[in-house]
Amino acid sequence: MKLYAISDLHLANSLNRRALELLPPYPQDWLILAGDIGETEAHLSYALAILTQRFARIVWVPGNHDLWTVTNDSHALRGVAKYQRLVAICRDYGVLTPEDPFVRWPGEGQPCLLAPLFVLYDYTFRPDSVPAEQALAWAEATGVVCSDEVLLHAEPYPSRIAWCAARCLYSEARLEAIGSEPLVLINHFPPRNDLVRLPRIPRFSLWCGTRRTEDWHVRFAVEAVVYGHLHRRATDYRNAVRFEEVSLGYPRDWQHDRGLQGYLREILPGPPMVEQANAGPFWHA
User: Fold this and answer.
1) Whole domain around residue 59: which residue ranges?
2) How does pLDDT run along the chain (285 residues), one tens digit per residue?
3) What angle do CA 10, 11, 14 make, to 5 degrees?
4) 99-136 burial code (b ≥16 CB/10 A, e <16)
5) Are 147 and 212 in contact (CB under 8 A)?
6) Residue 264's CB: how many other CB atoms inside 10 A?
7) Can you give the CATH number for the domain in which 127 is found?
8) 86: part of which helix (H) or strand (E)?
9) Cis (ω within 30 of 0) for the bond into 116?
10) Number of domains in the chain
11) Strands (DSSP E) along the chain, which ranges?
12) In angstroms, how far is CA 91 from the centroid of its own chain?
């Protein structure tokens, strides 16, 4: 019994949908879906209808694309209302969400609690020399603007920054209540700025996370951290904690002949531990 993870299925793309349809069953195993399944409620329902039949249990967290309000989404929910609707869809399929109690992993490897989180970004993944009020202009100077600026709304919060702060406080309180039990942290966005390696668009880092989570892997009893978003699959180690970027990505980001199964990352029991406390990136094709 293994715990696998994948993110960034981006099911608006027909090639990705076909790969999902062809995924073989893993009836004894669990799967983490670490966000960006698609852009509409229909995309999420489509994915869960398939994956809940292929795996024993699914754990889900939202990505930024999942939270978009797009013109072809007939429900047109925004912000927290959109997120709550996605949680409701997951619960209809018996899928674990960031609003549910953490669950204990019953399979191979280190006994852990699986902790799905929903923590956004707050534009703090930027150089210290760039003031907060100039952050967007700093990114725009190189032609980088995330579609979230138009499509990801924060209502009833005044901004995504405020929503991120609230989610961090909520998540921290839940993690602090766990005590010393080992955890697998699951979030769509990378928890540390040094994991954001985007050589073509380095200033996209603004939309990649928050410094509030930089030390969570040492503040809490973390065994592994699972995230996506970057479309750059890698394994890293920080302070002897394993970090797994598990994205599939757009059709250009993966080799179609490998199928979706070629991109499932084993989280538990996982690979042998490396000797160095800080190592990586170990890139995955």
Assistant:
1) 3-283
2) 999 999 999 999 999 999 999 999 999 999 999 999 999 999 999 999 999 999 999 999 999 999 999 876 556 899 999 999 999 999 999 999 999 999 999 999 989 999 999 999 999 999 999 999 999 999 999 999 999 999 999 999 999 999 999 999 999 999 999 989 999 999 999 999 999 999 999 999 999 999 999 999 999 999 999 999 999 999 999 999 999 999 999 999 999 999 999 999 999 999 988 889 999 999 999
3) 120
4) eeebeebebebeebbbbbbbbbbbbbbbeeeeeeeebb
5) no
6) 20
7) 3.60.21.10
8) helix 79-92
9) no
10) 1
11) 3-6, 26-33, 55-60, 103-104, 113-116, 183-186, 222-227, 234-238, 241-245, 265-268, 279-283
12) 18
What is the total residue count of the chain?
Answer: 285
Instruction: Please name which of 179, 46, 54 lies closest in space to residue 115, comparing C-alpha atoms.
Output: 179
Token pair in block for residue 265: 């990352």
Phi, psi of 16, rounded to the nearest 5 degrees: -70, -40
Residues 6+ apart with CB under 8 A from 224: 112, 184, 185, 241, 242, 243, 244, 267, 268, 270
Distances (CA, A) of 147 to 38, 88, 151, 233, 283: 14, 25, 6, 22, 27
CA 182 to chain centre: 19
